[in-house]
Write a structure and sequence with these properties.
heterodimer; A: 185 residues; alpha+beta; 60s Ribosomal Protein L30, Chain: A; 4 helices; 5 strands; globular; B: 419 residues; mainly beta; five-stranded mixed sheet; four-stranded antiparallel sheet; 29 strands; 42% strand
Chain lengths: 185, 419
């Protein structure tokens, strides 16, 4: 299957489509001209208390956890996963052991496990799959003795994945980054 | 079987209005030449022109240039109609009679079938409402009109993804967020005055926000540890379904309309759940779950999930949307032979079918039903990742882009009807 027309036919097609698009489409205001701004932070109204039904074990996130100058990215190596999988391959486990060792040596620090997916699939599902990958890394770390309160997870899904990527690139997109959080808790 | 035919190099509208728009066309072509390849994918992205022998030929005219163009654009996106210059079965005329009022007249030969003044929030809205009235009078298949929907969508500028609203044909676009952050999955509340969406804003984690458009107030609604995403209101607005991972795995949760009294509805497992959507009566939720994913339905008040996608249909099925117009119909995204396509599941028969789109060289994802239970709005996605919102007739496979190239990448549509 050819995905794009050849250059010459593309020009003809593009011209026809542009003609069609323009003729059917009246001029529109630039959306940035009609931006509505929320009045600073006062428009953010986090609820003081989110109530839970009995048996539901969710914790409200500490709002001070945010990635900033106090985080170190790239020092600990990312863990890579198979296609559509959140299982941590045998050969990736040493990286999690290194992360656990780093925490032992730096007892005030914590880790943010950031799950990623390759560009294929759908956005909502991939946000879940990235979460699953980060959670699998968290489970492994707790199984080798890291306290759960030292670990935060986040999913970026396929939001930062390279589009139209080749197999080698997609392999590097299926990962959990291990970010060091220097904020104490 | 309707006879489909590819029809890429028409169109009536193109030749008819080309002269008036020459200057702008040259401007756009010049930009195209400057930017080269990346835009080339977008210009015809999402377009599958199909005319079936079932189509009703209509001549459509409006009293002003904008109304004329909009009326033609609307009817051209409808799979039941074919817009023609002469010899239509119906002649449909729209005349602006006030700042917010449009008269619609439809005739079949010498006999008038419709003559009515329709009001809207502005002239465009009145035209779209009037066109819906004309559709209901002339389609002879009992279809409701869907043109006068309010649209919410994401304008994707890479690291900045913003929530926008507009009419169904991208008139009156307003950027409702301007955070320069990742905003995702906007969904209308049924009242059409509020939007719920997912954003990494402030915290750097996916949280669920609610915007009240009337009061310009925004609330951080759900912010548990883990991923909080994909929230949707129930049809009566009293509950919110969402995906939360704070208990260790992305599962389906319910809350009240304030995001409180949160309760899990799927058994905690290691299988990723996504995209909950309520049934029209609010009693059930459909969602996607691993393995696959495949689609499952659970009762809102608790009970066992039941798989509803037929075995062997597709290995990957996701993003279900339950039709309000026909409670038996679910539209969803399926991976078919390496491409993503829109598919429709009929709960009454248990059968699913892929909407044939003539090997269109793009992926089709994120479908959402329009009011007639026949058309959907979805995201056509080029291999570059660029997306464009399109209206798709699930019966004929006719696909018509509605978002202009000038808006860049647009995706994740949600629609609501009413004032």
């Amino acid at each position: 299957m050819t995905h794009f027309p050849k250059p010459l036919s593309f020009l003809v097609l593009a011209a026809v489509s542009v003609l069609a698009a323009c003729s059917k489409t009246p001029p529109r205001p630039d959306p940035s001209a009609t931006v509505l701004n929320y009045p600073d932070n006062s428009s953010l109204n986090p609820q003081a208390l989110q109530t839970l039904a009995p048996g539901t074990n969710l914790e409200v996130r500490d709002p001070s956890i945010i990635e900033d100058a106090n985080s170190i990215r790239g020092l600990l190596k990312a863990v890579y996963y198979g296609y559509d999988s959140s299982v941590i391959p045998q050969e990736e486990r040493a990286k999690l052991q290194a992360a656990a060792d780093y925490l032992k040596a730096n007892p005030n620090y914590r880790l943010l496990l950031e799950g990623h997916c390759d560009w294929r699939g759908t956005d909502e599902y991939n946000l879940g799959l990235g979460d699953r990958r980060a959670n699998a890394a968290k489970s492994y770390l707790t199984s080798i003795g890291v306290a759960a309160d030292k670990l935060e997870i986040v999913s970026k899904g396929s939001l930062e994945a390279k589009k139209n990527a080749d197999e080698a690139t997609m392999k590097t997109d299926r990962r959990a980054e291990i970010v060091i959080l220097k904020t104490t808790k | 079987m309707p006879a489909g035919r590819a029809n890429r190099n028409e169109t009536f509208a193109a030749s008819f209005f080309a002269v008036a728009h020459m200057k702008r066309i040259f401007a756009v072509l010049a930009i195209l030449a400057l930017l080269g390849a990346p835009l080339s994918a977008q210009t015809n992205l999402g377009q599958v022109e199909i005319v079936t022998d079932q189509a009703i030929k209509v001549r459509v005219t409006g009293s002003t240039t904008e109304l004329n163009n909009l009326a033609i654009q609307a009817f051209s996106s409808h799979g039941r109609y074919q817009v023609v210059a002469t010899g239509g079965a119906y002649d449909i005329k729209f005349t602006q009679v006030g700042p917010t009022q449009v008269r619609v007249e439809a005739s079949r030969g010498a006999s008038a079938v419709l003559n009515e003044v329709v009001s809207g929030s502005d002239a465009r809205n009145a035209l779209l409402r009037a066109a819906d009235v004309a559709v209901e009078k002339t389609n002879n298949a009992g279809l409701k009109g869907f043109f006068a929907a309010k649209l919410a969508f994401i304008q994707d500028m890479g690291k900045a993804k913003e929530v926008c609203t507009s009419d169904l044909f991208l008139g009156g676009v307003v950027r409702q967020t301007q955070d320069g952050n990742l905003a995702l999955f906007p969904r209308w509340a049924p009242d059409g005055n509020r939007l719920i969406y997912t954003s990494f804003y402030k915290s750097g984690f996916p949280d669920i926000y609610l915007i009240d458009l009337a009061s310009r107030r925004r609330d951080l609604l759900v912010h548990f540890k883990g991923t909080n995403q994909a929230a949707r209101f129930s049809p009566d607005g009293s509950r919110i379904a969402m995906v939360l991972s704070g208990e260790g795995n992305p599962e389906i949760y319910l809350s009240n309309a304030q995001g409180s009294n949160v309760t899990r509805r799927t058994p905690l497992s290691r299988e990723v759940k996504s995209s909950p959507s309520f049934s029209p009566n609010g009693a059930e939720i459909i969602y996607a779950s691993e393995p696959g994913p495949q689609l499952y339905i659970i009762p809102v008040n608790g009970g066992s999930p039941r798989r509803v996608t037929p075995s062997g249909f597709a290995t990957y099925t996701a993003e279900p949307d339950w039709s309000r117009a026909d409670p038996n119909k679910i539209v969803f995204t399926a991976r078919v032979g390496g491409a993503y396509r829109i598919a429709v599941l009929n709960l009454a028969t248990g059968q699913a079918k892929v909407v044939a789109m003539q090997n269109a060289p793009f992926d089709a994802k994120e479908p959402v039903w329009l009011a007639d239970g026949r058309h959907v709005i979805y995201s056509a996605m080029a291999r570059t990742g660029d997306c464009r919102l399109c209206i798709l007739d699930t019966e004929t496979g006719k696909s018509t882009p509605v978002s202009p190239v000038s808006l860049g990448s647009t995706k994740q549509a949600s629609v609501v009807y009413g004032r």
